[in-house]
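DM from R.C. (forwarded with permission)

"hey, sorry to bug you on a friday — could you get me a structure for this? deadline for the figure draft is monday and I only need the backbone to look sensible"
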Amino acid sequence: MASPFTCAQGTSCNRALPEGSGAIQFWATATSGKVSATKNTSWKRDVVPPAMSYSVTGAHGNSGWYISAATVSLTGTDATSGVDALDIYIAGSLVSNPAMLTDGTYNIRYSVSDFAGHDVIKTDLIKVDTTPPVITVAVDQAPNAVGWYTLQPTISLSGSDTGSGVASESFTVDGGAPQSAPITLDDGIHAVIFTVADLAGNTVTETRSYRVDTLAPTLLPAFMPAAPDGHNNWYRSDVEIDLTATDLISGVASKKVSVDGGVSQDTPASISDGIHPLT
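My reply, with the result:
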């Protein structure tokens, strides 16, 4: 109970009310000694705005981005009149508390009101990108039917990202240094690792194999007998032709000979009497 106080005779007086609420009882006493009836009233006083606390939970990426779905939540306290409302607005629309945020950029407004009519407002910008970028690889030609490039292919890389945007694009060839400019592959079997990162910190990696062989195999014919056994470079005995072929990159797939422009046949092949062009 508060301490009573008395105003000086013939004057009015006042006393500042503290934070909180309570009851007031008052009366007046005349100089004659007569006392008025007692009156009662109440008071409520709250001059302190509520306290606000908000939080954002999620996996942090780069440059202020979240790389997982983010959850925003709002709490408030008011020691005197109490909290009346806790509101979260996104782009001007009231949402639930807490609120789940998926990919996108959000302008958040937090509002806490107490029963005395005080409002506390804060704003925040939240950026969410949970989607990795997309890799696009371009090759200036197509391989043959068995997957080999018979001309040196030129490879280029580009990335796209509809969220935070592309931060970097690079690739390595056979474990070499990262590079971003288009590259022309030499003969051989190459492992190329492509990497694209976005500004939020999401990264995607893709490995592809390229087989390049621009060199024809070497071919060496062999005859049985090894040399003509007659006069004037003629063979008098039965002749067979065989082929020795080598290919250091893709390897030899087949060895065939065509006699007199006929159907190609496997070697060794027999050659009959006559003069025969061989291919």
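R.C.: lifesaver. Residues 72 and 99 are 5 Å apart (CA to CA).
me: no worries. The two ends are 121 Å apart (CA to CA).
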